[in-house]
Amino acid sequence: MELRIKRVYDDPAPGDGFRVLVDRLWPRGLSKERAHLDLWAKDVAPSTELRTAFHHDGMSWEDFEAAYRAELAGPTKEALDALRTALEPHATVTLLHSVHDATQNHAVLLKAALQA
Questions:
Q1: Which of 31, 46, 59, 80 could link 50 by a cystine bridge, Cβ 3.0 to 4.6 Å?
Q2: Concatenated DSSP letters of 27-82
Q3: How far apart are CA 88 and CA 63, in angstroms?
Q4: Helix 77-87 crosses helix 61-73 at what angle (to 10 degrees)?
Q5: pLDDT at 56 over 90
Q6: CA distance 115 to 112
């Protein structure tokens, strides 16, 4: 399976394959029709507390990365396993997120966890 990452606000493309929103909150100003989602996997997104610490309280990327990996290995592991199973039949999957930073966001870490 090929895993891709894309901002949910970017236009859908035929090559996106199976489109999965991996944010806990619905993206502001985006209609469900425009999102063209196949699945909303909000249970694999960072916890509200972790998201708030990173985006609003100044948590470092390194600390966020360690904490999110711990969530994926702990309380979120069941949701991660369920997502992995749901993605198996698809040749191409695009993980969609609403974060502005293309390199330091939870979708990058989630992709790595799914590929592990």
A1: 46
A2: PTT--HHHHT-SEE-GGGSPPHHHHHHHHTS---HHHHHHHHHHHHHTTTHHHHHH
A3: 31
A4: 80
A5: no
A6: 5
| 83 closest CA partner among 36, 47, 115, 35 | 115
Alpha-carbon distance of 73 to 59, in angstroms, equals: 20
> How far is the CA of 19 from the CAs of 13, 25, 72, 96, in angstroms?
10, 16, 20, 7
Quote the number of domains for the chain.
Answer: 1
- pLDDT 10s digits, 18-43: 999 999 999 999 999 999 999 999 99
- The domain in which residue 15 lies consists of 2-115
d(CA 33, CA 59): 34
Contact (CB, 8 A) for 35 and 8:
yes
Element (H, E) at 92: strand 92-97
Tokens of 112: 């790595």
What is the C-alpha to C-alpha distance for residues 71 and 78, in angstroms, rounded to an integer?
A: 11
